[in-house]
């Protein structure tokens, strides 16, 4: 008897302990076969096409495949290995082929178009109208109107792009994992706090080596750049970090970058768009590259004078302190931290004891409870893909189940860098049942050591709140259709729920709920809270300029014809001209490890962070008018934004919450680039 495949059995929670890597390929192929049969039922139906028998049925087709692939690709990000990565390269073209089979199915499109053409007479709900529009555009924006030859060309482009993107990400992860800075002379650790030293010692011990090891994962890299007195070692680590994918070796990403940019442009042209940015932005709040560039230019005008002033001040400070003639990139975090300590008498080492990870988790849960009535209970009978992953049952104030929440906090060799939110199961309503979502956040926070628990930097605290804001968007989803649920919204709107929650990290009323000393239990002192608030806009001009530089680099890859670009580094340097403060480092290239745009979904969309900052600053001002825990305001945010997913255009949803469009001045005020109210 053939053993059953756990991925093809019915499961409520992902059955991680039963899944083996070899289960994925046959399960995905079988799920594709099942999905094709579901599509065939639509196209072969003798009934007149209707919203129910065509659009709705299409929406719920392939649900088994969606769940299996979500598990697979989440593992490829959070707990990968050579075997999974190899399989991802094999599976991606198969999935791309299947997607194109659907999009280029002439009979299916004919039925969808028939329903779409009579949409004005169908008496559809707002959500149904949105779904119909989304399904129709899924076809037209992906080649349904192309001739057979061009459809095949599009198929080939999509397959190549999927493979290139995967290879790009694998190279970045391999580069990150292979580099280590080993220190054997204790004097080279001067300036580093105890926690960073202990973590480096533990890492060396794990690798069976003497001394201390630092690597390119953020919890190791950031403290070294911020505190290590040895400038030459900072330089060495900084150059290694900035040179990922830029070594002209087997992990080099330059050709991947050029090919991805050129194939995306070719795809956009094939579909009738001027550039890839024109194609992507058609379904964004910003709408056009011209609007995005105008938005960034306006912010640049406000931020650049402040950034230049901050930079010159930092230069003078470094010169005065250590006779540094020319400030370099590897000096930025170090001297910024020194200046910040001098000005505010505050640094991460003073704050970290108040931010024990378990307390911060409880804090964000408490804040979600005060705002939205949510309750979180850790559960131990849910399968996880790694022993470090925690699981929580999420209920409302009436004990009604809302979601299952997974949390994975520390770096591992098989986990890509950064932090993100994802899901293992979408929220939707079918057969009179509201299926609740399974949401996950994945981070790379400082690990506990032999001497101390996991103590977070303040930046890690805001990162946790950020990802939890995304998670709330998923947990509180309450739509009928999965493709519209939760974070399935326009890309430049998706960061609003995440970024708005970061604001609570700076508020006394919120901090006092969870910021207690891990040894004494003392609540964070009032003067520390005041200094956190006061230092919130420290070097905000430079930080804004940095974010704008990334957004401009993204647009320089995607809003132009890249066919003439042959040198990745030269193209990048030109893109950075308007935002450059530090001397260029010849060994470094950002594009070759810019995973947001070459591996993730931020191509022609990196501006979204700043765009959403305008929304979040404006939204938080609304919260502060009646108190940051005002339930009426929170309920309004929940009912108009968090629960609504992509039911309507984001501008409509936001105006329903705020009563008007977002005011850009709110962001400039918060950043200290305008006089405060």
What would you give as the CATH superfamily of one domain? Answer: Endopeptidase. Chain P, domain 1
Instruction: Summarize the biggest pleated sheet.
Output: 5 strands, mixed
Which value, in Å, is the CA radius of gyration? 25 Å
User: Total number of helical segments?
Assistant: 27
CATH architecture descriptor text of one domain: Up-down Bundle
| Principal-axes shape call | globular
Q: Would you state the CATH class of one domain?
A: Mainly Alpha
Distance between the termini: 73 Å
In brief:
The protein is of the alpha+beta class. Helices cover 55% and strands 6% of the residues.
Q: Would you kindly provide a written description of the structure presented here, covering whatever features stand out?
A:
- With 677 residues, the chain is α+β, with helices and mostly antiparallel strands.
- Among the domains are: 16-145, Up-down Bundle (Glutathione S-transferase Yfyf (Class Pi), Chain A, domain 2), CATH 1.20.1050; 179-242, no CATH class.
- The protein has 27 helices and 9 strands.
- It has helices at 21-43, 51-60, 63-78, 82-103, 106-117, 126-140, 148-178, 194-206, 218-227, 231-242, 254-270, 276-281, 289-322, 329-344, 348-351, 357-372, 458-475, 495-502, 508-511, 526-534, 540-558, 568-575, 595-598, 608-625, 631-642, 650-658, 665-670, and strands at residues 181-183, 212-214, 375-379, 390-395, 401-408, 420-425, 428-430, 433-435, 438-442.
- Strands 3-4-5-9-6 form a 5-stranded mixed β-sheet. A two-stranded antiparallel sheet has the order 1-2.
- Strand 4 and strand 5 form a beta hairpin.
- It is globular, with a radius of gyration of 25 Å.
- The chain starts with 20 loop residues before the first helix and ends in a 7-residue tail after the last helix.
- The relative contact order is 0.10.
């Amino acid at each position: 008897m053939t053993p059953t495949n756990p991925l093809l059995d019915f499961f409520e929670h992902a059955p991680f302990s039963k899944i083996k890597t070899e289960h994925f390929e046959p399960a995905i192929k079988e799920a594709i076969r099942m999905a094709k049969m579901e599509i065939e039922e639509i196209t072969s139906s003798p009934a007149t096409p209707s919203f129910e028998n065509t659009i709705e049925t299409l929406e719920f087709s392939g649900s088994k495949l969606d769940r299996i692939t979500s598990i697979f690709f989440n593992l490829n990000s959070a707990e990968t290995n050579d075997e999974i990565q190899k399989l991802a390269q094999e599976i991606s073209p198969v999935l791309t082929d299947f997607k194109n089979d659907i999009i280029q199915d002439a009979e299916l499109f004919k039925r969808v178009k028939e329903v779409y053409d009579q949409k004005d007479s169908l008496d559809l709900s707002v959500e149904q109208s949105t779904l119909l529009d989304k399904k129709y555009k899924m076809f037209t924006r992906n080649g349904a109107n192309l001739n057979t030859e061009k459809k095949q060309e599009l198929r080939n482009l999509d397959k190549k792009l999927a493979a290139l993107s995967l290879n790009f990400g694998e190279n970045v992860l391999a580069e990150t994992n292979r580099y280590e800075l080993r220190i054997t002379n204790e004097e080279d650790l001067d300036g580093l706090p105890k926690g960073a030293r202990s973590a480096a010692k533990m890492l060396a011990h794990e690798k069976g080596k003497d001394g201390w090891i630092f690597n390119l994962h953020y919890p190791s890299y950031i403290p070294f750049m911020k505190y290590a007195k040895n400038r030459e070692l900072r330089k060495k680590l900084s150059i290694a970090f900035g040179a990922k994918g830029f070594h002209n070796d087997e992990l080099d990403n330059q050709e991947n970058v050029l090919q991805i940019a050129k194939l995306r442009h070719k795809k956009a042209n094939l579909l009738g768009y001027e550039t890839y940015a024109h194609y992507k932005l058609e379904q964004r709040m910003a709408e056009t590259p011209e609007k995005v560039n105008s938005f960034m230019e306006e912010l640049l005008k406000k931020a650049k004078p402040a950034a230049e002033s901050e930079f010159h001040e930092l230069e003078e400070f470094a010169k005065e302190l250590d006779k540094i003639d020319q400030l370099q990139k590897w000096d930025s975090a170090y001297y910024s931290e020194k200046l910040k300590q001098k000005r505010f008498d505050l640094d991460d080492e003073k704050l970290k004891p108040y931010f024990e990870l378990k307390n911060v988790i409880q804090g964000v849960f408490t804040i979600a409870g005060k705002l939205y009535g949510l309750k979180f209970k850790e559960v131990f009978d849910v399968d996880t893909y790694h022993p470090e992953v925690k699981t929580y049952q999420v209920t409302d104030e009436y004990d009604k189940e809302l979601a299952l929440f997974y949390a994975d906090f520390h770096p591992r060799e098989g986990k890509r860098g950064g932090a993100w939110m994802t899901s293992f199961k979408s929220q939707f309503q079918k057969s009179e049942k509201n299926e609740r979502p399974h949401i996950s956040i994945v981070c790379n926070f400082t690990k506990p050591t032999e001497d101390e628990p996991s103590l977070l930097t303040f930046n890690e605290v805001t990162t946790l709140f950020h990802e939890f804001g995304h998670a709330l968007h998923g947990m509180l989803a309450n739509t009928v259709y999965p493709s519209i649920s939760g974070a399935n919204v326009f890309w430049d709107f998706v960061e609003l729920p995440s970024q708005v929650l970061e604001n609570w990290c700076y508020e006394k009323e919120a901090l006092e709920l969870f910021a207690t000393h891990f040894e004494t239990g003392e609540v964070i002192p009032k003067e520390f809270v005041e200094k956190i608030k006061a230092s919130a806009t420290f070097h905000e001009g430079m930080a804004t300029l940095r974010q704008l530089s990334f957004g401009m680099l993204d647009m320089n890859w995607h809003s132009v014809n890249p066919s003439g670009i042959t040198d990745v580094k030269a193209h990048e340097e030109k893109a950075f001209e308007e935002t450059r403060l530090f001397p260029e480092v010849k060994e470094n290239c950002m594009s070759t490890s810019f995973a947001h745009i070459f591996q993730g979904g931020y191509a022609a969309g990196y501006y979204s962070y700043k765009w959403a900052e305008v929304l979040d600053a404006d939204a938080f001002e609304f919260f502060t008018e009646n108190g940051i825990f005002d339930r009426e305001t929170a309920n309004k945010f929940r009912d108009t934004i968090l629960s609504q997913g992509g039911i309507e255009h984001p501008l409509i949803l936001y105006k329903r919450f705020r009563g008007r469009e977002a005011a850009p001045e709110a962001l400039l005020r918060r950043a200290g680039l305008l006089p405060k109210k």
